[in-house]
Amino acid sequence: MALNNNNQEAAKSREQFKKEQTVKEGTKRNRRIRVRLIPIWLRIIIVAVLISLSAIAGAAFGYGVVGDGDAKDIFKKSTWTHIKDLVENE
């Protein structure tokens, strides 16, 4: 029974807190200014770099480990023209 009373008191205090907050917000506008640690433009650049790195790592793993080739060959143009020819001829 005591636990139920504590829950009721907590609910009442939450309701009172919400009412007090709406009264405070109505009289004066207290808005928090959000300061971003990393700007949005920098986040976009970071995501683009991470996507590029993961694509390079995936190609190196796929060509070097799964394909039994040399992982450094993914940076050669001849490798990509060979892959392109294989895909187009099938």
Helix content estimate: over 70%
> Low-confidence parts lasting 5 or more residues at pLDDT below 50?
none
Strand content: under 5%
Can you tell me the overall shape?
Answer: elongated
Question: What is the overall number of helices?
Answer: 3
Count of the domains:
2
- Rg over CA atoms, rounded to whole Å, is 30 Å
- Nearest-integer average pLDDT: 82
Q: Major sheet, described briefly? A: none
Structural class: mainly alpha
**How do the helices and strands follow one another from N- to C-terminus?**
HHH
Organism: Cytobacillus dafuensis (Bacillus dafuensis)
Protein name: DNA-directed RNA polymerase subunit beta
InterPro entries: RNApol_su_b/EpuA
GO cellular component, one term: DNA-directed RNA polymerase complex
Short description:
This protein has 90 residues and is mainly alpha-helical. The protein has helices at 2-27, 40-66, 77-89.
Overview of this protein structure:
With 90 residues, the chain is mostly helical. The protein has 2 domains: 1-31; 41-90, no CATH class. Helix content is 73%, strand content 0%. It has 3 helices and no strands. It is elongated and about 75 Å long.
Layout of helices and strands:
Elements: H1 2-27, H2 40-66, H3 77-89
Which key phrases capture this entry?
90 residues, mainly alpha, 73% helix, DNA-directed RNA polymerase subunit beta
